[in-house]
Design goal:
The protein is about 0% helix and about 55% strand. The chain is mainly beta.
Length: about 350
Amino acid sequence: MKNYLHLIPMAGLCLLASSSFAQTADSPYKVLDTVKVMGTGGIDYVFADNDARRIYVPRGNQTYVFGLDDHKPMGAITNIGGHGIAIDSKSHHGFSSSSPIGMFDTETMQKIKSIDVKGRPDGILFEPFTGRVFVFSHVAPSITMIDPKEGTVVGTIEVGGAMEQAQSDGAGKLYVAVEDEKKVAVVDLKTFKLVTKYDLGTTAGEPAGLGLDAKNHLLFAMCSDPSVCVVVNAEDGKVLKTLPIGNGSDNGGFNPNTMEAFSSQRDGTLTIIKEQTPTTFAVEQNVETKAGCKTCSLDSKNNRIITVCTERAQPAAGEAPPAGGGRGGRGGPGNLDVLWVGR
């Protein structure tokens, strides 16, 4: 565990001491490190750029950047906020899912421009098969596509329903969790059209997180109310297994190195699901993280999962608590907590 106590020159951020949470000795996964940074505003997604070894967390009207390996804050990109971040490693351009979309240079960490889009941007993904950035919305148009080099809108795809997390198989198929319909949409990236929607069944909740085992063609839909992971055959939509997870999932993924799917939840848990065979699955562990850590991203080099949440800073002795109350630092100042979970 590392401790930092200094000021970050960019954006004048104050870094608080790092800490970790105690885990039982026999737990295969645990919180290895936590970095806290003071800031203002709410958060949604965290994004691990595995190529450049960085972490991006939009909060309020700026995006905080951390080193993926050393965990040190690198500063903040000002005037770039929103829900999530997508990076095109070839052009060194980054994009935030906001309205308008914010485009920035990853090398200088400076904003380039704003891109006007319709709908209500939420999730965002750089899609390798097309080489485009896909922006997902809860209202029409469902998907907006952006040329990452020029930063221009090049088309839209209508799917219907509230789009949440998406995964690409890298070979021409895109899968998107359709939250309000309890389905997973399948989009053909050669024709840019909806192929079908897989129904997750009567025991499924609303899917927000989505993992994909591209090799074995398996989808892991992370649902809330009820809180379950529905494992689906990505080729025909057949439901293979339904497993319990923590409450309040909003993000998930799959690590092909360990053959594990994972889901982060608001209740302060990270559920790890083991793919024992392509037809056999089991909940391996529910890791204690921190309440509010509902989104996550994978460090594929170190097989670690990064999750984030916010909390109100404790007032100094004799001071009144911040106005507005409540947890999460949504309006006033509070800590951004970045957690590294691994073995």
